[in-house]
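Posted in: Protein Modeling Q&A

I'm a second-year student putting together a small comparison for a lab meeting, and my supervisor asked me to include a predicted structure for Thiolase. I've never done this before, so apologies if this is the wrong subforum. The sequence is pasted below exactly as I got it from our records. If anyone can share the structure token output, I'd also love a short note on what stands out.
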Amino acid sequence: MQDIYVVGVGMTPFGKFRDKSIKDLTGDAVAAALTDAGLTVDRIDGAFFSNAVQGHMEGQHMIRGEIALREMGIQGIPVVNVENACASASTGFKLAVDFLKAGNGDCCLAVGAEKMYSDDRALMFSAFDSGWDVSNSEEVAQRLADLGAGVEEPEGSKSPKPYSVFMDVYAGFARLHMKTFGTTQEQFAAVSAKNHAHSVHNPLAQYREAMSVDQVLAAPPITYPLTLPMCAPISDGAAAAVLCTGEGIKRLGLDPARAIKVKAAILRSGTDRPPEDYKNHLTRLAALEAYEQAGIGPEDISVAEVHDATAVGEVIQIENLGFVEFGEGGPASLRGETKIGGRIPVNPSGGLESKGHPVGATGIGQVFELVTQLRGEAGARQVEGAKNAIAENGGGLHGVEEAAACVTILGR
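Accepted answer (user: helix_wrangler)
Welcome! Here is the predicted structure, written out as tokens:
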């Protein structure tokens, strides 16, 4: 079976772009990825287009990718639409890897695009309402509330303004972690402060202002223990990756020195595990499978991008990825182990909290950052000597964990 490589990446800035359409954002990201690879559209043998909310926001269902890609000349080849909640883009990336491994072509495109921001705030926030089982949403909400039972919510720690239902999901996870391991709100704030500091050096990030732990704690509340800077914003944006087989790199005359090997690409769905059974969290199991496929362990990882839709997400995921023991994610973050220059730099891009979270593009946005790091092209946010990199991207909720999660390992 052939090795697969990322030969080109492109990403738009993430933010609020009233004057940009899905087609505009897609076109910008794909053009940048093709230019980076040194290829033209006629070299693409297949495309996977990831998007989660365009149907809800605009009423465009069924053929989103065919419509978004045709105007740039991508037509006549297989185009597959991928929707897998916030894990859509990483799922599309894995499918592109599998497409090439199956011998369906030499060169494949994975692209994710999302247009989420709207002046209609009710429409905007309700885009997340179907990310769990809508047939028993009240039962699901109560289960999440029960996760944090026994952790007191201070008065005034819940926002009176509308916010995504998934902030309540993460707050439930956070309070369970606090109750089980003694994690503190200050430790979650340290994650957020670190990611906001990283984003200062990312020109594509939605927010680029550093914040201290005290500033994060003093910010407006969302739902305890989360404050506004601990939560990913609503974002528009797109990201794309061009993948090739090893033989394709030779046939197409590409520069192998800039090609980044896909060492593992794993997708799992959640299970009905007990909440306290952290060792069987779907991301933990996906990470173990990814490490085995790549032939390396967590100690070999130079840099990581993880799904910090809130700061608690990063704490949980660095434990799942094996960087620290279960329950040690908060203390390690407060000690600075996950900042650039620390023991294991996490989210040098600024993460979802600062870089932004256009959900259908997020996973490939992580790939963009890690490819940039592995090439040594990240500038002031560069992790020195980066050799192996890992991305974790989850989406939706089923039971007490994400409905889907992808773990991807890239390396030189």
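A couple of things worth pointing out for your meeting: The first helix runs from residue 22 to 37. The radius of gyration is 20 Å.
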